[in-house]
Amino acid sequence: xxxxxxxxxxxxxxxxxxxxxxxxxxxxxxxxxxxxxxxxxxxxxxxxxxxxxxxxxxxxxxxxxxxxxxxxxxxx
Length: 76
Known about the structure:
By secondary structure, the protein is of the alpha+beta class. Helices cover 33% and strands 13% of the residues. It has helices at 30-46, 64-71, and strands spanning 6-7, 12-15, 24-27. The two termini are 24 Å apart. The model has no long low-confidence stretch (mean pLDDT 86).
């Protein structure tokens, strides 16, 4: 998912080239928008000059446990 696929103003994620070759916009809950905004703010502070168009970046492979910790409500 690239930065251009994440619309935090309208709370929509664009999923491109799904299983049947279609793209769709998926609405996300306001709490998810809040979490993604916080993530984007922190990401941009740590990496002000992005080397990739990807929205979610990591210094290494992401693990499900790490993603749950980062995006679980009440962990910040």
